[in-house]
Design a protein that fits this description.
By secondary structure, this protein is an all-alpha fold. Helices cover 82% and strands 0% of the residues. The chain has one domain.
Length: 175
Amino acid sequence: MLAGFTLALLVALLLYLKIDALYGVGTSAIIFTSFASSIFIMFITPNSRAAKNAKFVKSYMLAAVVGYFGDLLLIALPLAIVVGLVLFLLIVLMILTRSEHPPAAAIAFAFVLFRVGIVGLIVIFSGVAIIVAVRFLLEKAIFEVEREVRRLDERKLRTKKHVRSIDDSYKRRQQ
């Protein structure tokens, strides 16, 4: 449920900032699908390597910055070469920084393909902040539920021990 809520917030952000109007129809679709893939990884498979907050944040920051500079390279180089260079550089940087989160690659591609500028950086940074914040709240809620379950289990265990103690005492008296 929170994954869907998070995605709805991101779509609202993309619509509010009118990304498609600024950079062309389809820009928000690529950003949206990249974030949707990340949300799936972050919320549905939270223990996977790619679901770590640090990997997620670093990968999106790298993708946005590399994609932004890739957009600038289009002045001198053809699109096909720039896309290849951007993806290669992003992969190398993700490996070097141990921030492998595959859906982020779509962000770099969107920046180059749709010539996404500064507003795109704001969208990506805001989107990352939203996802991390909601995941943090989810983790806090889950941890609180786990703590309560543990407390209940401990009470149950204490009650069982107490009942056993009474039973043992009763058996000793009968002997």
